[in-house]
Amino acid sequence: IPVLAGVLGIALWVGYGCSIYNALISSFLEFATVSAGEDIATVLFLAMRWDILDEVGGQSFPSAPLYVVSTVIRLTLVLCIRRRLRNFQYPFTFKDFCVVLAVFAPMLLIFNFETVHFIDGGVLGLETMALVIALCTALIVLILYLKNYLFLRDKAERDRRMIEQLQRQFAYYQEKQRDEERVRSIYHDMKNHLLLLQAQAGNGQEVQHSIQTLQKQIQEYENYHHTGNEFLDVILRDKAKLAREKQIDFVAAVSFEDGAFLEPLDISTIFGNALDNAIEASEKLPADQRLITVKANRIREMLVISVENNALPELPVPLGTTKQDAFAHGFGLPNIQTAVERYGGQCSVKAEDGMFLLNILIPIP
């Protein structure tokens, strides 16, 4: 039975692509269910004084009715367990495997020992053995259920916090978009007024200086990013301004007319998080090495987005975080990946030689 459990575990591991621990624990549970069904059926037959053995050619075999009843009990157990664990997502660790093995191994020993001595009446007694195996099977199911329940609860909390973060980010860019629209609406009038004042002021140095100062302050709006998507324009302008404040060279070559099928929230998630990560990584470098390049355009039937930045060589594992509070701050790249996969796209990261590159491919519908 241990050999069969190991073979079944390897088959599950290869066939389903799950972790080896999940596969082995699944095989343990399968054998526990088989054993429990057989013992419960046998105890039931003995209680009802039904024959449990048939003589065939001088050999004793379990009777056909016993096979049928034990199979029905096994199927019932399987359906009950499946219903309880139908949304199982917990990735088992070596410690979890050892805990389940500590329950399965004694149960297996008792089952084998009592089976060998069954004809002689056994040692513990069939009822006691059936009770022990049923309790061990229930304990394994309980361990699996609790582990999965706690995992799903933590995952739900992470999802809730992630959604709240994305909603705050989205609301921020919506407000910025409204601000930008108001500023752009008065920009052209402001520029014309300043030109008129400059012509009327003559050679007054103080007036000329004031006008030139005002012109310099609003000049940055002439360098506004025009991507073909007003919402993305706001995000790029906001991040470009933040990069300038942190002495980071920011280069954007973005043509996003074909990205209109993306929801604004997803645009915010992809570009906002990607650029926030790039700015955070660039801050740790000397000023002359700080560079961020963002590109986006259509290539055939794909929307291609890339964000590249210089970074320290010792980068974290992709889809991770360098911050101490990983629970609160580890959403950036996973959020990007989730948003991209929603449109059937792919997201990949590459970190080497002091360079971090995020590549995104999204099929255009």
Q: Name the overall outline.
A: rod-shaped
CA-to-CA gap between the ends? 53 Å
Derived from helix and strand composition plus strand pairing, the structural class reads alpha+beta
**How much helix is in the residues?**
55-70%
Strand content: 5-15%
Report the count of strand segments.
7
Strands of the biggest beta sheet: in what spatial order? 3-4-5-7-6
Mean pLDDT: 81
Write up this protein.
The chain is of the alpha+beta class. It is 62% helix and 13% strand. It has a five-stranded mixed beta sheet with strand order 3-4-5-7-6. A hairpin with a 2-residue loop joins strand 6 and strand 7. The longest helix is centred in the middle third of the chain and has 76 residues, at 126-201. The chain is rod-shaped. The two termini are 53 Å apart.
Which properties best describe this structure?
single chain, 365 residues, alpha+beta, five-stranded mixed sheet, two-stranded antiparallel sheet, 10 helices, 7 strands
